[in-house]
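Hi L., both proteins are below.
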Amino acid sequence: MGWALKCSRARGARFSTKQKDYLSAKFQIGERTGLKADPTSVVTAMRKAKDVNGERLFDSTEFLTAQQVASFFSRLAAKKTTNEDTEDDDEDEDHTAHLQRENHLQEMRDNIVTSMSIQNAHPIVYDSFNICELVQKSKLASFSIKLLQEMCSSFGLDISNIKIKRKQPYINILRELVKGCKCQLGTVK
């Protein structure tokens, strides 16, 4: 028996359904757009995430670490690949090679996306909200004015000339943004 102190490793609590839903939405957006979310940026976004009323989605006890987010995304990706392909050949070597290819592809995607304008991206996404879908279903009116302002600002849209405290001017600006999207032009696969 050594002199080292016994370490009582605390068992982590399971993710809440709200956390799972948020992370799954981020993962699905990444799958659809080809822009896989970086765990550290997801953690930052999670701390700032707001619901449709403009209130914080998570309190400080529900914040996750980048490692927890990365592990969750890894499990989702593993589920996806096991559903698509049930064969496993020399898993360790393939996994390492796959990770290297994936990292290279991610860098290439990031470079391409930074060179693209917002109108060429589909779907147009703010946090975990699909703006294209919200405009199509006329759901933007359910958001608070503050959140609509944040959405417009995040896309670099000029809202300085809006002087009234109404939702409609912000909704109109977001509708104009979505008009240039592939989904509105009918060029989405």
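That was the first. Here is the second:
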Amino acid sequence: AYREELQKLASLTDSAPVDKVNFIRAYAKAREAGMRKDIILSDWRFTGNWPINCYKALAHPEIQPDKEKLLEEFKTPSPPQLHSDDTPKTSRQVREMAKHRSRPTRQKYSKIAKGLEALEMKVAVQNARITSLEEQMAQVRRGKKRKAVPNPNRRFMALAESLATGEALPDSKGAEIEVDVDEEVESVIEVGVRSEDERDDFMVVTKHCQRTRSGREVKKPRR
């Protein structure tokens, strides 16, 4: 039937190529002529499917789907990527992504962009505050001066001169001269003068002072 229709068209169109419209018309007429009940039943008998078994026809290997496609359908989908280079990081990038999208989507993107702008302003203010505090700390460190520490050698020199000239010293058995030394010095020498009843001999006492964990000197109370 289809061949007959093509022959009719070829005689009318002078063997021109068949276009889509003529093909559909010829195929519809051939389908009406070929898809009749008696022809379909005879085809079932010829293929061996008699009495008719629909399951046998559906289980034919030529019409089964590919196993690879079935495995892909039942395969567990991989988790989405959490980190992507396309993730917007600024409000401007969010607004660029909102272009060429629907109106509700653009409204949502606009809200997200406003939130990012507020966060950007907050971060900028905090960074400026941190910078100013660092500058203040640097100025305080530069302006801090160390306390001047007297040189203890001058007192030792004065004591040696008085001993050499034989000047009178205070008449006290427990008199001691305390010397303030810098905190970096580990030991301090305390010099004291003692006078006995009938002699003018002098005694130099050397002691080691006690210090705290921070290195400060522990002074003894005067008697």
